[in-house]
């Protein structure tokens, strides 16, 4: 997967947490316009990888570039970069005492000086984009799980970020709601000209909408290729993950979690 101007580029990245190497030797290019699925068992380091993309976790080695520039060290520049990354975290993260519209308006109120009528209009557009314009005045408790997830998606889109990151967008959703959310992820990616990274262990719901998939396990990328190639892979590690088998090359009981790199952090290169 190569591209001269990828939206995200990782080169030889090592990520440590709590003094332990979680991921090592990670190289990945995400070209503009793609939907990339980041798959892997629980504790393999998927969220850790996302934390590196948003600059929350600096790489212990290697380079992480987003929008063609290394992740900045300076807080001000980092905050600026983050405005270009829409993040939908696990669960909804919706504020329960605010309506759907007020939740979507939050990033616009916090990060822009736009007048209220303009914000109201943008909020209506975002809710329309996720098919929920009629639910603007509903509180999160009045929404189904799938609808609440779509409001969270509208909120992540509020500032028109060119890059969207989804961390387990399907947790707790039934198969129908999962299908709706993933179809929306694909449609928004294409109609708004975004690039999307979807971190999930919901392989079968995510692969149909992805252009590219990577699997992380045992502290590194163990597969990188098309969804078709993933499903037909004969690699025992990939097979074990796809079938959800406890026995195989991915250890179930390594220290610190399933599939985590079981060795201490090396010296920074
Ligand atoms: N703040 C932290 N301090 C120390 N270790 C951490 C920290 N966050 C995560 N880890 C460890 O890093 C490893 C990877 O965790 P991570 O949350 O990235 O995995 P994941 O693939 O996202 O898991 P899940 O699918 O369960 O969310 C785990 O062994 C975890 O215990």
From TrEMBL:
The entry's keywords: ATP-binding, Nucleotide-binding, Transport
Mitochondrion keyword on record: no
Species of origin: Marilutibacter chinensis
Alphabetized InterPro entries for the sequence: AAA+_ATPase, ABC_transporter-like_ATP-bd, ABC_transporter-like_CS, P-loop_NTPase
One Pfam family this sequence matches: ABC_tran
Chain ranges of the ABC transporter domain: 8-243
Protein name (record): ATP-binding cassette domain-containing protein
GO MF, one example: ATP binding
Domain of life, per lineage: Bacteria
Disordered, as annotated region: 243-269
